[in-house]
Design brief:
This protein is an alpha/beta fold. It has a domain of about 210 residues: Spore Coat Polysaccharide Biosynthesis Protein SpsA, Chain A, CATH 3.90.550. It has 13 helices and 12 strands. It has a 7-stranded mixed sheet, with helices on both faces. It has a 3-stranded mixed sheet with strand order 5-10-7. Strand 2, helix 3 and strand 3 form a beta-alpha-beta unit. The protein is globular, with a radius of gyration of 22 Å. The two termini are about 40 Å apart.
Amino acid sequence: MEINYPLVMETIIDLFFILSILYACLLLVFSVLILIRKLKRNEQFPNVSIVICARNEERILPKTLSYLEKLDYPKEKIEFILVNHASTDGTAQIFDDFVAHDPIHRKVLHIQDNIEGLLGKAAPWHCGMLACTNEIVLTTGADCFVPPTWVRRTVSYFKQDTQIVSGPALLVRENETNSLFDRVQNSDMLFIQGLGFAVNSLGLGGAGLANNFAIRKSAYFSIGGFPKLGFSICEDVRLSQGVLKKYHNKAIRYHFDLQAIPTTDPEPIKKLPNMKIRWSMGVWRLNNITKLFVVLIFSLHLLLPILYIITKDSIALTALLMIIGSEMMFSMSTLHLVKKWKDIIAVPFFIPYLWLYMIFVSPWVIFRIPLKWKGLKVREPIR
């Protein structure tokens, strides 16, 4: 039987066109959702623990700790758990000095590698959770700077059945002297987190972000913590999915509250490829519906340009333009949420950046190619 190649190619183009319409419509729905969704808050002041994990962060750590000291939450209700993870610089001393100012409400742990067989941030995060004495535990990065209202606003999003509260982190240099590429990175960060916010709005769970994460201690240990969850190169995604599996899809509340969003410096360009691959590989830890959606995104970005280059078909071009237009709209919606209107000028540059890195990381996501991470070759296990 002779294969009709023109007909096969036409069918493939039509299929991608339909998938592009579906993706564009989803982004339209997501844009509306993130703009109209208003999370109810419940002003409350429970005792909280704050876990900060650091490894060789002496350059930025003093600034991070100075922001934590400016929190507008009752000082006697905050417990700081500082975890020094096998640092070889001055991190340990900086933590020790910080604790010395208030040893009653501050603790420091000095740990080495291979704690309970855990790799990466899971080891210090787990040790920090073990040391906490309060039910609500917040964490952020050692290179993140929290606003004074961070704790107060974050805990206000906890309801009786809420197990995790999370939100985005913004990439902002000191004095907001962001370059165009910094703004592109920020647009990218908000795009990804906006998708998570929209998925959460639909009651499909999603995943929290370690740089802005709060969890009930009882929920963490009810699932066995990181030792029972198994290996993951995206610890925050793994932890989120473990909680969702035990509880329900509404156990996570995701906010875009500027008063509860830390900032951090944009990543150096040389670190971006590995970081993007690692984050993207975390898709295999998501629930099946979200996983299908993310694989759809990567497949469209990888294969549709190839299809158009091969065929020069007007339908394929229309599909490409439809996707680009919907992504620009969604990106501007996320920037509007956090009042980063100046960064809208970066959106036309962000779109090709998004396509390029999605094409670049697609093989790792779709074919699960091992990634070199912390001296090991690893791949994310399928959930």
